[in-house]
Design brief:
Length: about 300
């Protein structure tokens, strides 16, 4: 996420607290980016040990939780005891600077249904269709011929919260928006949350049935089919051509490989290999799950 103007780290630390490594006190950041894609002159949050490998290899300046700071080199850190809160404060400043210039852009061939709302900062592409009473937040980009079903909400801030030094919780602004690629369709009464630093993505030609939830930073791959009431937690990655049964649930940060199939009501708490078929909770290879259920039923009958 590029910034309108560079931010000096020394000024950020003065406003929001924390400790800067001496080597970066005079540096400026040009963007705030996810840890996996951040480069030099960019600020990247390191808030969870699961991203340690990326934190150790990045050239970015790290906004790092104080408990994790000893795990990374001591040359490019902004260490903070409430790092998520500090991120929320910085993103709040960025959001405030963006509001003045935001305008909606709706292509002349797009269709906006009765009662639908397209907020400032949204882009609706050629031939796209927004059905009645849908809400398109700023930061959403609808590609050509994309469809948003009646009553759906796309681009609302994702479910991100941080503990504050005062003991309460504050919302982390979600500024990454949503990209709905060409020919994708979002069914009625779906919710697709905005990403934090990069967009939540619905891939080209993907189809979401009714009442599907896609959390912030998630990506649904091109041509994937998702049945009704499935739910994807934040940062889930679904590769191309995946089929998801109704009411399946996905834990945060899992990855589902291309061409995989996930049975209805499955609980996916770990990665799914490409072309695999999984079922059950926790979701495992479908044949294994069926054999396990058969043993349970035999045991139940004998008792």
């Amino acid at each position: 996420m590029r910034l309108a103007a560079p931010l000096r780290l020394r000024d950020l630390a003065a406003r929001h607290g924390g400790t800067l490594d001496p080597a970066v006190e005079r540096e400026r950041v040009l963007a705030i980016a996810p840890l996996g894609s951040a480069g030099a002159d960019e600020l990247a949050p390191f808030l969870s040990r699961r991203f340690l490998a990326a934190a150790r290899s990045t050239a970015a300046i790290l906004l790092v939780d104080a408990r994790l700071a000893p795990l990374v080199p001591d040359a490019r850190r902004w260490s903070h005891p409430f790092a998520s809160w500090a991120l929320a404060r910085v993103l709040g400043e960025v959001a405030e600077s963006r509001r003045a210039d935001a305008k909606a852009s709706v292509h002349r061939t797009a269709t906006i249904g009765p009662g639908a709302v397209v907020m400032p900062g949204a882009v609706v592409g050629p031939g796209a269709r927004v059905e009645p009473n849908a809400v398109i937040y700023g930061g959403v980009m609808l590609g050509a011929r994309a469809v948003v079903g009646a009553g759906s909400v796309v681009g609302r801030p994702g479910f991100g919260w941080a503990a504050s030094p005062e003991g309460g919780i504050v919302r982390i602004p979600q500024l990454g928006g949503v990209v709905v690629e060409d020919d994708a369709e979002i069914g009625p009464l779906c919710t697709v949350d905005a990403g934090t630093l990069s967009p939540t993505t619905i891939g080209r030609g993907a189809r979401l049935d009714a009442q599907v939830h896609v959390g912030h930073n998630a990506a649904i791959g091109a041509g994937s089919l998702v049945a009704a009431q499935a739910g994807f937690a934040g940062s889930v990655r679904v590769d191309a051509g995946v089929q998801v049964g109704g009411q399946a649930g996905f834990a945060d940060h899992v990855r589902v490989g291309a061409g995989a199939r996930v049975a209805a009501k499955s609980g996916v708490i770990g990665d799914v290999p490409p072309n695999a078929t999984v079922a059950g909770y926790p979701a495992v290879e479908r044949g294994r799950w069926l054999r396990g259920m058969a043993r349970v039923l035999r045991t139940t009958k004998r008792s």
